[in-house]
Write a structure and sequence with these properties.
The protein is α+β, with helices and mostly antiparallel strands and 309 residues long. Helix content is 53%, strand content 13%. The radius of gyration is 30 Å and the shape is elongated. This is Parvulin-like PPIase.
Length: 309
């Protein structure tokens, strides 16, 4: 089992997505303009609504802002859904203008927010892209993957499972325990573990392959499993033990050193790690250098001071 410790996704992916109102706002503010670095020829018009063009970049923006909430996955249907949403935004924005129900102050606040968000996302994307290099990815691989591999081995396990039947009361727990003890008696008398599994185990996935639970690391097993498995010697069978779902018996078939993931197989993930690190470093730097005065905290302190007096 390859090992790759967890990593933080790029900052842009961690930021909260705005709602549909952001798409409408973008349209009202002229989102039909080409995106960063795009020429008009590279940003074709896909529809014209009452004389207002909708560009390919408008659909991309809508997908970026609210795409995560769309249930439609088929590319053609998804594109049609996005186009309808942007079209509706153009039409409804015009209705709002004609009915004089605009709130200029609110629109200004939203415009500032949308501009800041757009600039932030673009900046962080560029920073992430510029940080990714072969040297940086190799360094991340060494520090996070190779140096991060623990000395604890991987375990090749087989298991017997006896489920606790609903409603999981004391009687059901006792019944599962009795099955586990009966299976343990057979194993102790010399019957092959795989034969007992094939006849009585209640895990349909592993039963057909002799209870083979594959190669596992401690972190890939529940605490009860890990605590029992890590103490076994090669070829040894555990005593029955209980978890939340049932009673179990483990057999340790073999062990091997934990193998790190191959560099070429995780290049994309390493690139994401490097980009994320650069983005987070920039955010931390500008925060540290900024003068930020929290007025809400000042007012809170003033109120608490007044109560004391």
């Amino acid at each position: 089992m390859n090992a790759l410790p967890g990593f933080r996704m790029p900052y842009r992916a961690m930021t909260a997505r705005a709602g549909l109102a952001t798409v409408w706002l973008a349209v009202m503010l002229g989102a039909g303009a080409p995106a960063f670095g795009q020429s008009p020829s590279a940003d074709p018009v896909v529809a014209v609504v009452n004389g207002s063009p909708i560009h390919e970049s408008d659909l991309e923006l809508a997908d970026e802002v609210i795409g995560r909430n769309l249930l439609v996955q088929d590319p053609i249907e998804r594109r049609e859904t996005l186009l309808k949403m942007v079209t509706d935004a153009v039409l409804l924005a015009k209705v709002a203008t004609d009915r004089h129900i605009e709130d200029p102050a609110d629109l200004q606040r939203r415009a500032i927010f949308a501009r800041n968000q757009g600039l932030t996302n673009h900046l962080l994307t560029v920073v992430g892209q510029q940080a990714v290099s072969e040297e940086a990815m190799r360094k991340a691989y060494q520090e996070v993957v190779l140096n991060g591999v623990t000395t604890e081995p991987e375990l090749h396990l087989r298991h017997l499972v006896f489920m606790i039947a609903p409603p999981a009361d004391d009687a059901a727990v006792k019944a599962a325990e009795q099955k586990a003890k009966a299976a343990m008696d057979r194993i102790n008398k010399g019957e092959d573990f795989t034969v007992v599994v094939a006849e009585v185990s209640e895990d349909p996935v592993t039963k057909a392959r002799g209870g083979d639970y594959d190669w596992r690391q401690r972190g890939e097993m529940g605490k009860e499993y890990a605590d029992v498995a890590i103490k076994l010697k090669k070829g040894e069978v555990s005593q029955p033990f209980k978890t939340a779902v049932g009673w179990h018996i483990l057999k340790l078939e073999d062990t091997r050193p934990r193998k790190p993931a191959d560099y070429d197989k995780i290049r994309d993930r390493l690139a994401a790690m490097v980009a994320s690190a650069a983005q987070i470093e920039l955010v931390d730097k500008v925060r540290a250098e900024a003068k930020i005065v929290r007025m809400d905290q000042i007012h809170k302190a003033d109120k608490e001071g007044a109560k004391v007096r």
